[in-house]
Amino acid sequence: MSGVQVETRRETARAGAAASVLDRWGHQLQRLPLHLVIIIFIAIWIVPTIGLIVNSFRNVQDMSNAGWWSALFPPHGFSLDSYNQVLQTENVATSIFNSVLITVPATVIQLAIATMGAYAFAWMKFPGKDIFFIVIVGLMVVPIQMTLIPVLQLFHTFGLAGTFIAVWLAHSGYGLPFEVFLLRNYLGGLPREIFESAEMDGAGHAVRFLRIAVPMTIPAIASLTIFVFLGVWNDLLVSLTFLGSSPNRPFTVVITQLVTSLGGGWQFLTAAAVLQMSLPLAVFIFLQRYFVRGITSGSVKG
Amino acid sequence: MDQIITAAIAVVGVPLVLLGYIILGERVIERLPDHLQTWIRPYFWALPAIGFATIFMVYPLVRTVFLSFRNNADTDWVGFTNYVYFFTFPDTLTSLRNSLLWLVFYTLFAVGLGLIIAILLDRVRYESLAKIAIFLPVPISAVAASIIWKFMFDYQPPGTVQTGTLNAALGAFGGQPVAWLVNSTTNNPALIFVGVWSITGFCMVIISASLKSISTEVLEAARIDGANELRIVQLIVTPLLWPTITVVGTTMIINALKTFDIVFVLTSGAYDTDVIATQMFRQLATHHLSRAAAVGVVLFLAIVPLLVVNIRRFQQQEETR
Fold it and tell me: Of A89, B31, B165, B214, which has the fewest beta carbons less than 10 angstroms from its beta carbon?
């Protein structure tokens, strides 16, 4: 009796499974256009970058004889010629080095100052605080073009034109409003009780800032560091304006100047572009979580 | 070598100086009478940040407005001459027109594609992998992105081998090659597309995060009631995403108005592709300072409405904090 029941149950289950497989197939078939559209989007968004990377491993002669896709089939003809050529081009190797020397201090300076300012805005009361902060929110969207001429004149007056110090300061000035804004929101969200009990234990503001506020803000500072670092590394306008013809100019400026001055035969710059973007891509791939969190939490920055 | 030492000093020195400033400053302030303490301390803490903002943003802003009404040598007032130049000279008018094109199409496509891709990817299992692909151009600099697309748009005369991806694809379908970046009907759309390509991933990530916060129960209920997917997107998803879309949209408008790198690298503003920011840079590079200042002020005025919107939004957020 019970054996028969089990048998029928199994059969219905089997029939059901068969139907659901068919169903699933039918369902997937219906969804085919969806997958196709997505694949087209993905192709548009990654093929150009792949093309550049493939081309960077071919010599200039090959690049002008056939498109990058021809290197996907034998004979591939891959070579490091473009990399050799670009690194031997005047200024390029120095400019990569300059980029590092500009980016690291600029990032450290602005984040240190921003964290301190954000603490004041988050945990202190003072007359004019709201107005100061609204000005900071407003400054976040002011185009830096609006400031270039007077700042350039200031640098000339103080003999800083064309120096690293000039771009460190300029980047810091331009980056601060957004960083103060973001860090103040984060610091302001920390539990009040911690600061109050520290105060009752006799901890002054210096201790509360260095021992409580900064360690608790590390996640926000870490995300922000990535963005500030990449922002300065990728910057063109600030360096072009303040270091345009100086031997201290960074990689982006040198690449841009080579693109416009070379005319024909610029193809070996593929290698330069790959070198320039390898750092941001590595940061993105290895620190993806911080990256996405940073974007979704502070989505106002342009 | 000297430069490395300077940089190292800056990296270690600046935080140390700030640390000394905080510790020594607090020592002094703690000795002061109470009412003086509460008065001085906040300004002491906010001073470096406010100082930087004043020197690099507030003062230059005022000074640029001032310069835009002066002659080039900064010796005499010239009234609106620099503005009249901007609004009557054909080249600068072209840059104004192009910035408007950027504003409309860059914003529309970046936000629109970001929204569409976020909604589509929400429905497939390989979502996170697909997102990485779309997001990939975001960390890439505009300079590198421009070189990437210089190859995509590459043009060789008809009859020779097309090594540019787009022209080769056109040729495969029997079309004639197009000089994308020179032809004045295709160059502005081409440049704007490079901008859209670089930023869509950014819009997608933000919109997608907000899409995930819509409760699945609402969507299920609508499906049970027989609403099709298109209706659901139109009547439920889009209205719920609207606040996010406006935030992303204003950010994109500001981006569009500030656009500089892509145009500067790919065409240097030639063949009628100039935008306000490249126009301003050219005036600056050719030492027409007061004209450059006027162009900067025009750019700033275009952004003022968005600045007001941002401040309003900030004040609303503060009220609900």
Answer: B31
